[in-house]
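I have a small job for you when you get a moment. Can you supply me with one protein entry, sequence and fold together? It will help me judge whether the discrete encoding reads sensibly. Write everything out right here, beneath this request:
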Amino acid sequence: MIRKIISIIGGYATFVVTSLALFKLSGQKPHADPTLLFMIFSVIYGAIFSFTAGVVTQLISGTKDVKLNYILAFIIAGFAAFSMFKSDGNHWTQILAMLVFAPASVLGGLYFTKKYKQ
């Protein structure tokens, strides 16, 4: 049970730390209007690291199903929805988190279970 909880925390930490790093290193404010190029880059970057977060969740958990990835996706989407209702400015990051990044974390878990947990 503890391992499963730690796996979700590890997956979410992977998602959050890489997201924060993107905005810190780029100088882009998360709720400011982005350029089209930055938004496209963010979608690709976020999808890759959300997928990675799903893989990390599976690596740590040691399970053979993706239930934990669905929990991770729910947490990612839930925090994004909460942030969207509580913050001002442009909500493009939260919308991407709910529509692209949360599902990508499930795909990462599915990929890992199909490839490595036969």
Remarks:
- The chain has a mean pLDDT of 94.
- Helices lie at 2-26, 36-61, 67-86, 92-116.
- The chain has one domain: 2-116.
- The two ends are 22 Å apart (CA to CA).
